[in-house]
Amino acid sequence: MLLAFALRRADDALVLGHRLSEWTGRAPLLEEELALANLALDLIGQARELYALAGEIAGDGRDEDDLAYLRTDREYSNILLVELPRGDFAFTIARQFLYASFVDRWWRATMASTDPRVAAIAAKAEKETAYHLRHSAEWLIRLGDGTDESARRAQAALDKIWPYVGEMFEAEDAALVTAGVCADPPSLRAAWDGGVNAVLAQAKLQRPRDGWMQTGGRAGRHSEHLGPMLAEMQHLQRTHPGAKW
Amino acid sequence: MSTAKFPLWEVFIRSRNGLSHRHAGSVHAADATMALQAARDVYTRRGEGLSIWVVPSNAIIASDPADKAMLFEPAESKIYRHPTFYDIPDEVGHM
């Protein structure tokens, strides 16, 4: 169960990191090109540490590369939010903000983990996601309270993403929460609402209504977008197994 | 991207070894907050910095290159202004 936990959290980080890496060469300005690549590298680094932990727990000789490159989409347990295509810049920023608003609080609460390996990963990751939250919040405020076009795109992005935010707050494995290994996402919902509402108000954006929420990613039931993304991400390793630089 | 909406900012970084802020380069950003973040993302990726300053480029008043001879050449003949003429006692240590 600790194995499934590490894979869930690693998959979230890797898939979102890959989506951010797709901006390389396409960002709206040079400075943001580097900023998005920095966020991507933070997330891929977090994924590596979590996959290494998963490999250690599995004890079957699989390393972080095997876990990232040799599992199918049905074996990936990331939430659907992170696998959605990168969209326009407003979509990427809105998603990053909503996710970072959750995951930064989750890592901070998980720094007190009773498992020292998880606590160490959390301590490093939280510093990184705190910056992700600040950077994406500042951008969202400027897009929402910017030009007519940037406001329209930011609102459209929020409306499109909103049905995917519920999955972030699905309960973690109760045994792990009871043992103090990680924070339970539902306990962070009120703090997330407060933080998100404050930024949306500053950005002059409307918070979409909480309606029906998408689910299924944790059980391996993904959107049509994850398969093609993994195909691109994994093709080198699958075509040339064990290839080295 | 219009430079009117994304003005230029000069970036100064203080490095780990305790020296003063040094000019690192410049970034385009909409305002001061975003300029600081852009400076962090562009110029401190390899652990270079402990502190960042950003200054609007148009706030820097520069000397005119045409005045170079008048401003700087007179100092070149005054070698006695360099401290190399003095013996420093060992007890003083590094100056």
Concise account of the structure shown:
With 245 residues, chain A is an all-alpha fold. Chain A is built from ten helices and no strands. Chain B has one domain: Phenylacetic acid degradation B (Ubiquitin-like (UB roll), Roll), CATH 3.10.20.520.
* CATH architecture name of chain A: Up-down Bundle
Number of strands of chain A: 0
Radius of gyration of chain A: 18 Å
Biggest pleated sheet of chain A: none
The count of helical stretches of chain B stands at: 2
State the assembly state of the protein chains: heterodimer
Gyration radius of chain B (Cα, Å) is 19 Å
**Largest Cβ-defined interface:** A-B, 13 and 14 residues
Query: How many DSSP-defined strands of chain B?
Result: 3
Descriptive overview:
The complex is a heterodimer of chains A (245) and B (95). Helix content of chain A is 64%, strand content 0%. Chain A is mostly helical. Chain A has a single domain, classed as Up-down Bundle (Ferritin). Chain B contains two helices and three strands, in the order ββαβα. The N and C termini of chain B lie far apart (48 Å).
Record the SSE blueprint:
The complex is a heterodimer of chains A (245) and B (95).
Chain A: H1 2-21, H2 30-58, H3 64-69, H4 80-83, H5 89-110, H6 116-144, H7 148-161, H8 174-178, H9 189-202, H10 226-239
Helix pairs in contact in A: 1-2, 2-6, 5-6, 5-7, 5-9, 6-7
Chain B: E1 8-15, E2 22-28, H1 32-43, E3 49-56, H2 68-76
Antiparallel strand pairs in B: 1-2, 1-3
